[in-house]
Amino acid sequence: MISKFLESIGEWLIETRQLKNLTQEELAHLSGLHEGVIRRYEADQYQKCSLARVSHICEVLENYRPHT
To answer: What is the pTM of this model?
Structure first.
């Protein structure tokens, strides 16, 4: 059950990031993380993963509004 939940997070991260027209690099910068962390989470690789970090990335995506 946990692995199924984590898989859906990776998919959500990709879909939401793309809908907001952000690159992995841009999301990493906005969230204060390395691009490799974003890349790993999107690929469902959660070694050394903290729920707080995943939650922070989700909050950044939820609250992101592009400059117009």
So the answer is: 0.81
